[in-house]
Design goal:
Length: 62
């Protein structure tokens, strides 16, 4: 399963329906998230980490 597919599964499992993908960036409720591999090793970890994409936010503020 690709990282993007795992991120989509994570979002849907959380009950979020207002999302889309812009290439490899997850967009939820207008906020952009970078999808990364999580290697924390926790037993319940799904292997996906979502980080707010600050690059897009800084462009908006300029």
């Amino acid at each position: 399963m690709t990282l993007k597919a795992r991120a989509q599964e994570k979002v849907e499992r959380a009950g979020i329906s207002n999302y889309s993908f812009d290439h490899d960036i997850l967009v939820m409720c207008g906020v952009r998230y970078t999808i990364e591999v999580c290697e924390c090793g926790e037993p319940d970890c799904d292997g996906v980490r979502l980080r707010k994409n600050m690059t897009a936010m800084s462009r908006i503020l300029q």
